[in-house]
Write a structure and sequence with these properties.
The protein has 97 residues and is mainly α. The chain has helices at residues 6-17, 21-25, 31-47, 52-59, 63-79, 81-96. The longest helix is centred in the middle third of the chain and has 17 residues, at 31-47.
Length: 97
Amino acid sequence: SRDISIETIQKQVAAHFNVTIPDLLGKGRCDTIIKPRMVAMYLACELTKASSTEIGRAFGKTHATILHARNKLPDLCRENDMLRHSVEQIRRQLQKN
């Protein structure tokens, strides 16, 4: 599979959840932004070779925030079918392009 960039993941997630890139990269803490941001960080961990520090830099966050997203999102997906389907759908879309 070809290399997927963090920027491509950010664009795909933003489009899927109907939020802007500045929302994803910003400091907003409402649920409509936190979950998409967490999905984007999680997928960046899963689908790129970037380190958590590099991913953190791309999101304007610390590597600890990235690790938190990577560890927490699978739990959220187990509790929330819609979120799980969104993650699967975005992952398929990214791997297809």
